[in-house]
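User: Could you write out the 3D structure of this protein bound to magnesium ion? I've included everything you need below.
Assistant: Certainly. Input first, then the structure.
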Amino acid sequence: MNLNQKSIEQLAEHLENAELQAHEVIKITEAHPDMDWEDAYAIQAEILRRKLERGHKVVGLKAGLTSHSKMKQMGVSTPIFGWLVDYFSVPDGGEIKHSELIHPKVEPEIVFVTKRALKGPGCHIGAVLAATDFVMPGIEIIDSRYKDFKFDLKSVIADNCSSTRFVLGGQMMPVAGLDLRTLGVVMEKNGEPVAIGASAAVLGHPAAAIAALANHLGARGEEIPAGTMILSGGVTEAVAVKPGDNVVLRIQLLGTVSTRFI
Ligand code: OOG
Ligand code: MG
């Protein structure tokens, strides 16, 4: 760690205010070029601590930058991990107020729900599949607090991986008998397909993103508890949305989920 506790608290407040007041900020590594990975995750944890203190609850976890399209789009090369809290959750078909966000984008994701705890190191897709209760489709809405959605890995980790809203829906599919690599993914905006992919785009197999999260947490003595909902990462590039846009995600065998921006 290169930052002291006071700087971590100040940066967490700075980034959380940007989220809550929906305004952009300059990426934090500009003023703190020496910050390291531990500092970045410590700022992310301090933002969560502030929310829990106000009575919010963690309702899920996420992996991000797990597909090559996303890594290429953002100009980075390793997965990142974050948390999801209660007010991020939007019901299937529900509305999202664009004015509460800065420059939101939507991404198609395969969502896992666990029935047993997963603990790294050494977690692999076999362990993930054995511990998975079901998978379902999810639209993640990301909204980097950084100007023009431009960041480096440390800045985006500190900003809780651009997390802001998510919508779950479709079918609860058990993974037995399902090939999680070959699911076709179509995301439509106002009736037009705007992102098309297959689930293997996520690290070759989306369960690998969950294993990577378990290994990341394992290195800190933490685990993925049983009953955790986890977004495994955007299958395609994220797509910008405006007020009035309707977004529908269809994933082969998993069904459909939708949301509308007002
Ligand atoms: C970081 C968050 C990435 C995903 O699914 O890849 C993410 C960003 O691109 O702003 O959630
Ligand atoms: Mg995502």
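DSSP finds six helices and 13 strands in the chain.
User: Perfect, thank you.
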